């Protein structure tokens, strides 16, 4: 192999010809967006859409400034600054692999405990959009009621010290205070996380926090700023040695390359109070009905991930593609989605729920995407409450089956016991792991103990249909194993069919 090209502005001209590179002059870019939470997904998704516009000579005044609010963000900052915030994106198809260099991000703010650099940049009139990917569990909401959690210690801190906040939302409120006081104008706040009504949730958190210390500011934010709902979709694995090696195969030395599938989707409300890039020219969809797209994606793709990930962990299946190659786990996916989730999802233009289930299957089964089961199973306490339990509630209200969904919850309870069936340890994989682990072991003796976690299940613990099915499945998993339980669900014994009838 020829000498590797260390990624930087100075070396872009030396990047191998098979790697697409920015055609625009990066030195001419000016920032218009601050993005908080510069993980792999942002760089493969939102940054890519903007890059596509810049490749056509458009949106050159909308460059992205990266930001983080937690100490661990400093590692990504160091890596990206060392290569002028360029990223090698590697698209993985079963039949081909390609790479391109994305250059729409031009800086990364210092990460400080009081968030002063972030506040100052967001207060800059040149910044017109602040976007976030901080995970669905990062919005300080009660998982059962979806209300703003004003009692969280981070929120209590920021309300008492609004000029030196520790959260992204406190920093946003502080910046908006500066903008109001200096007539710098409002901002569009854009959530890019997997939450139903993510714009509404973001508004609830920012306005709710501001109201605790400055009610007049809260009113100004409520009336002047915009919070469009959006739906984002692209499977983006975590970066490890394999991804770094893939970049090197293209002749690129990138400290933080990103691999991704070919599929991307971005659906947004056109509610941007201070202007926006023409993202629709790069393939984004603007609509007044983001909700329908959100419901389809969150209840089928995101819930579908949870349907298979816990079984995969229990059975030591390392990737989502491995899960889909396992006949019982993929059978669980097909039956739960088509029999118990599809009936509660409406079609969107050009896509029926049944066709979307087939599309997801192909994406999950892509062997080139080494998306780890552990990554997908992470933070189940947010993902089950956000993706799976709403479907269970709708199914119970409609009187439609929940057997498979109850089995999915039992598999999660079994996974949280912290051991696989081959005896290996499942390391903590949830912000609430200790609590989940205790409940999982209590539930081995008394299954209902799992459903009694009110912060997860709320009043679902009182539903006899769900509780009965859950108890039965968890006992079956512990007594006989995961695979026999999956077989029973896919091919129920005649006695069980008669009892259900």
Automatic annotation (TrEMBL):
Keywords: Oxidoreductase. Residues 32-280 form the Mannitol dehydrogenase N-terminal domain. GO terms for molecular function: oxidoreductase activity, acting on the CH-OH group of donors, NAD or NADP as acceptor. Transmembrane segments: none annotated. Residues 289-478 form the Mannitol dehydrogenase C-terminal domain. Pfam families: Mannitol_dh, Mannitol_dh_C. The keyword Oxidoreductase applies. InterPro entries: 6-PGluconate_DH-like_C_sf, 6PGD_dom2, Mannitol_DH, Mannitol_DH/Oxidoreductase, Mannitol_DH_C, Mannitol_DH_N, NAD(P)-bd_dom_sf. This is Mannitol 2-dehydrogenase.
